[in-house]
């Protein structure tokens, strides 16, 4: 190989017909100089790359060469950033995406070589080859964006490649809910079953599944007719997790109507009878929703058994979370304001409620259309009267 110096930090190889640019990145922790060589077909491109490098160096914007792979960075990010600062459910969800999808597809790529094009191809792979929904693929984008944002902050990357991709388009799921007649049919069907308190808590109060599963008798005030929501019980894979409620607004004191009080009193009587029946084998856990031996239901179990119950009784299709949507829509149709609905649901802001139920709770368009229709009717009647005269 025959290289000749063309100008400072640029040389030319006669055999390969390429220009070589020597880029200096300062010194490492041991005082050794860090250099990197790039090749170009044209001298103008070589000069441009050298000038850009020197400008970035002068402004302190250089990122030193690093051989860290995507897999190595994600493992570091999970250990140093995610696990100490995120809920166990979030850690589990991230781990599943990283282990099952991201590392097999992108893990061996050097982090500094991860291009927007390769990330875009990864999103297409998730949707086309893995059959994931765009909403699920969007979660992968959010994970990568957050992980690479930390890499930029810690000077491992110069810029975040996810800023230059088209992320999978998120489509808010359509909320499914019951009308009054369907909910009454469900309430009749669950009488005397293990699902009766579940349906009343979700349908009458709009509780989330994890809120119901964490509810304890000490949180229920029969005399004051109130119920306190301040903790949640959910699943991270096969592990049961108890945690704070979803947000500050989710911690709330709710009024209990007489129907809910009646059902909860009956449930408490059943638990007292079971305590006598099981004797020493009874587990007095203090939870409201339990098996006959006192052990609390797993959150995932409630979701599954509710869906089976709906199918078995040939009721209109609905998920357990759909009862929460039912509460919101029935409250709206009864004249409750969106602010009060938001407070009952425990949403962080009224905007969250509006975003989820925008076309279900917004009756402004109906009022507008009816106002126009009334105006036209009035005009039509006036016109007919004038013609008759």
From TrEMBL:
Keywords, comma-separated and alphabetical: DNA integration, DNA recombination, DNA-binding
Molecular-function annotations in GO: DNA binding
InterPro entries for this protein: CB, DNA_brk_join_enz, Integrase-like_cat_sf, Integrase_catalytic, Integrase_recombinase_N, Integrase_SAM-like_N, Tyrosine_recombinase_XerCD
Residues annotated as domain Core-binding (CB): 68-152
PANTHER family: INTA PROTEIN, PHAGE INTEGRASE-RELATED
Function, as annotated: Site-specific tyrosine recombinase, which acts by catalyzing the cutting and rejoining of the recombining DNA molecules.
Stated name of the protein: Tyrosine-type recombinase/integrase
Organism: Agathobaculum faecis
Lineage: Bacteria, Bacillati, Bacillota, Clostridia, Eubacteriales
